[in-house]
Amino acid sequence: MEEVNPEEQGQSLSPYTCLPPLGGAPQPLNPHKSHPDTAADLLSALSQEEQDLIGPVVALGYPLQRAIIALQKTGRQSLSQFLSYLSACDRLLRQGYEEGLVDEAMEMFQFSESQAGEFLRLWEQFSDMGFQQDRIKEVLLVHGNRREQALEELVACAQ
Q1: Model-level pTM?
Q2: Where is this region: Disordered (predicted)?
């Protein structure tokens, strides 16, 4: 008969034993979320320098996730650029544009609120006319937000 070490007792596995997840602490099962979703989790993922920048901005009422995205896009070098980016996005969002599209427009036009705003306005007009959204973006970029040239090209391609 084989002797069982008392330290190993209780550690044999049956086919019905549930193993804890790798990495220690049990994690909630949610296959749709691969990122932390609580404010504490998001903040703890940032460096102290980033937390020091984001803390006052969140205290002003900006959503934490939007502040983190703005910080990622503008970098930590310029607090004024970070704040102006957030303010510009906030103004564009209040006009009813979708957040992902606002972020994309701001990035395409190197954080120029006026150019991003014109792009969004034209994009919305052309979308309402039934043109393909990817094509609209391409044509507006090629023609530098010039409505008439962009519209001519969209119509020509649609025929």
Answers
A1: 0.67
A2: 1-36
Between residues 42 and 138, the one the model is more confident about:
138
- The DSSP call for residue 76 is S
Nearest by Cα to 57 from 33, 41, 74, 35: 74
Q: Round to whole Å and give the CA distance between 73 and 85.
A: 9
User: What is the number of residues in the chain?
Assistant: 159
Contact 123, 136 (CB under 8 A): yes
Q: How many CA atoms lie within 13 A of 112 on its CB side?
A: 10
Q: Rounded to whole angstroms, what are the CA distances from 142 to 43, 103, 104, 107, 145?
A: 39, 19, 16, 16, 8
Greatest C-alpha distance within the chain: 90
